[in-house]
Amino acid sequence: MTRKATITGVGKYVPPKVLSNYDLEEMVDTSNEWIVQRTGIERRHIAAEDTPCSELALKAGKRALENAGLEASKLDLILVATVTPDMPFPATACLLQQELGAGGAAAFDLEAGCSGFVYGLSVAEQFIVSGTYDNILVVGAETLSKIVDWEDRSTCVLFGDGAGAAVLQPAESGGVLATELGSDGSGADSLYLPAGGSLNPSSHSTLENGMHYIKMEGNQVFRFAVKIMGEASLRVLEKANLKPEDVDFFVPHQANTRIIKAAAKRLKLKDEDVIINLPEYGNTSSASVPIALQEAVESGKINDGDILVLVAFGAGLTWAAAVMEWNKGGR
Ligand code: ACO
Questions:
Q1: In sequence order, what are the beta bridge partners of 322?
Q2: Which atom, in ligand 1's list, is nearest to the CA of 221?
Q3: What residue ranges line ligand 1, CB within 6 angstroms?
Q4: Ligand 1 centre from 324 Cα, in Å?
Q5: Which of 33, 50, 142, 232 pairs as cysteine with 321 (C-beta 3.0–4.6 A)?
Q6: At what angle do helices 53-68 and 92-100 cross, to 10 degrees?
Q7: pLDDT-based confidence at residue 329 (cuts at 50, 70, 90)
Q8: What is the pLDDT of residues 294-326, one digit of tens each?
Q9: Residue 36 Cα, ligand 1 centroid: separation in angstroms?
Q10: Mean per-residue pLDDT for 265-292?
């Protein structure tokens, strides 16, 4: 029998501080109406100044482990998807390993922009299906508020902080049925953070020129996203020998309601089958898919036997999709 990988526990954490569109009206030349109409976002959660990414990851990770009924000491691998690590190195996953008390577990970060969690899910699946590991924690955790230019209205209204996590373990059937990963580096300059790496090491000049903030060509990213979210979803369904009508729930990256609706339309999905929590959290990058998944599971929407499509796009440009048969209890 083929060994499958399934999600046996999910967890999420968002910081308590909320920044509404009305708060943003006081900070930049924008309006609640513009933000809601163009993006669907109403508010976002913002981490405290002294809260690093690893703290959000820890809270979400602990909840996922509890939900799976697994002790941290049993973990074989911890994978953190993030574009806002505590620092360039060591990996945030190593800091999390220490905080969780998961001594000995392998740990590394994965950077694939907002597609990071779905990339991570696919990597974890490979380790489980190959028989290398049994217990893996995949976390998407972000503190985008710390790399956003709060004077740039074209980006600061979009992002929020948070973390979502999933425990993956072996299963006899169901679980991850297929994945689809991809990238197009020709779009690297449409969404990037210029300074702090080897190309532009941090200096007075990078700081003065605001090169430590997110730069984005919103229109280019939007066009890419509308195209790739639908395409990647159709491709991954084909790999799993399934059709759009087999999908019970669509769990997309939460960047913009218009992007999500365009992708859902390509799959001819009903509104109630599309998980949207964007109004509450904004775009939390690699945390968005696992937070949406956790909320849909916790609310009782998603149940064993349901077919899910998880799909994301992000900086790189990257995309990632996974089709799953939910069987949290079916191991
Ligand atoms: N408030 C008011 N007006 C604004 C704001 C704002 N916050 N931001 C931009 N505008 C103005 C612009 O200046 C422009 O004015 P102009 O016509 O006088 O020049 C006008 O609104 C229209 O701007 P557009 O950029 O054309 O607006 P658009 O409808 O494309 O929406 C948006 C912009 C929301 C950014 C959209 O392009 C988008 O969602 N893109 C995808 C972004 C994304 O998902 N990024 C994350 C990727 S994931 C990752 O890896 C981090």
A1: 179, 310
A2: 41
A3: 30, 34-35, 38-39, 113-114, 153-154, 157, 191, 216, 218-219, 221-222, 225, 255-256, 283, 285, 314-315
A4: 33
A5: 232
A6: 50
A7: low
A8: 999 999 999 999 999 999 999 999 999 999 999
A9: 12
A10: 97
- 178-188: pLDDT as tens digits: 999 999 999 99
Atom of ligand 1 nearest to the CA of 24: 7
Q: Which atom of ligand 1 is nearest to the CA of 115?
A: 50
**pLDDT for residue 330 is more than 60:** no
- Give the residue, out of 22, 38, 83, 257, with the most ligand 1 atoms within 8 A of its beta carbon, to mutate for a pocket test: 38
